[in-house]
Amino acid sequence: MRPTPMTDPAPRQPARAAVAAFVGTTIEWYDFFIYGTAAALVFGPLFFAEATPFVATLAAFGTFAVGFLARPLGGLVFGHVGDRLGRKKALVVTLVMMGLATTGIGLLPTYASIGIWAPIALVCLRILQGIAVGGEWGGAVLLAAEHAPKGRSTFFASFAQLGSPAGQILSLLAFRLAGLMDKGSFLAWGWRLPFLVSIVLLFVGLFIRLGVGESPDFEANRVARGPVPAPIREVLATSLAPVALATGANTFAIGSVYLFNTFMITYTTQYLGLPRATILDALLVAACVQFVMTPVGARLAEAIRNERLFLQGTLIWAMLAPYPLFLLVDLGSVPALMLGLALNVVGSATFYAVIAGYVAGAFPTRVRYTAISVAYQVCGAVAGGLTPIIGTVLAERFQGHWWPIAAFGTTLAAISFVCVTALGRYRARTPRPEAARA
């Protein structure tokens, strides 16, 4: 059955959907990133005060990792909601959940006030953050891609990806401004300000997101075939192989962010002795480069009409880039640090811009939210949550030597290269009628 215009109640709103995806993911990633920045800067001494600096840092990054472990649960729950009830409903709930959890972190007492209950409460709120962002990404990508004009889904899906560098820019600016106060005031209450701002961003995001209609592809599929009884069961029964490949394909997209951003703060401040402001400024420049390169990468991929080849090229760049990056970082100068991070982020930004639409095209509309969410969030739990911990262990074990960390970055890109290649072959064998849009 093909739905008629009268039975399809969701006209396409490409520009509005792209803006809503961008703003929503910006807010979600801002909330998620400020936690990572705070974990690198202040959560160790504030919430694990009795531990040594090394153990406190690991403990803080451990709570950071908990959010990633919760992300697959968010992908399952909201993938189910998004495939059965609609993309928009799921995205409204995730935005509210994230905003309230982040604001709650800004209001938490520290270890000095309530002892062990402080890190316990921190972990609980971090879990809520993880569930929220676990459900957000897939829906935001699909809301933009499924509203897109025919043949433009890669570019429009990149607006959801654009939220990541935008959130990173806002989070770095927030901590940069809060860090202008003296160290005592910053540790006492200044670090809370970036978290408390989230409640304002929540209302802005809701206003924009509520103005977008439901995905027309979802509505057409619902009219034609009805709601999916159990999306995850169908995914596991029919699409387990592409889910596994999509999980691996996202390894570099996720792991590189937390290796070259979150961990880089710890590496430069604790192991190279650079001022906190220096690395935050350099990361801000890198995030601006990523913000510019994300839509450029998506547009280039559409122009060459070969997403797999484009992704493979960016990953070759990404495998080589960590070595000049760490050579420049170890010089300790601000220009060298900015140049190294900017060169490195060119590969990760252009890859990140295209991978969402590339992965989504491997799955049918009726279970697409669940499939891409599970793949992305399982990868996030492993590659995202463990990357800063692995980086910290390598830096401690090989003090004075950066090459093991660079080799770790190369490994992340190599895993994605293999899986992108295999997923491309799978897509070529199993073309889908929705592929032109998704």
Description:
There is one protein chain. By secondary structure, this protein is mostly helical. It has one domain (12-429): Growth Hormone, Chain: A (Up-down Bundle), CATH 1.20.1250.20. The chain is 80% helix and 0% strand. The chain is built from 20 helices and no strands. It has helices at 14-41, 43-47, 53-84, 87-106, 111-114, 117-147, 153-178, 183-188, 193-196, 198-209, 216-225, 231-238, 240-249, 251-271, 276-304, 307-320, 322-329, 334-360, 368-397, 403-429. Helix 1 packs antiparallel against helix 6 (117-147), helix 1 packs parallel to helix 7 and helix 6 packs across helix 19. It is globular and about 60 Å long. The model is unreliable at 1-9 (pLDDT under 50).
List the topology elements.
Layout: H1 14-41, H2 43-47, H3 53-84, H4 87-106, H5 111-114, H6 117-147, H7 153-178, H8 183-188, H9 193-196, H10 198-209, H11 216-225, H12 231-238, H13 240-249, H14 251-271, H15 276-304, H16 307-320, H17 322-329, H18 334-360, H19 368-397, H20 403-429
Helix pairs in contact: 1-3, 1-4, 1-6, 1-7, 1-10, 1-14, 3-4, 3-6, 3-19, 4-6, 4-10, 6-7, 6-19, 7-15, 7-18, 13-19, 13-20, 14-15, 14-18, 14-19, 14-20, 15-18, 16-18, 16-20, 17-18, 17-20, 19-20
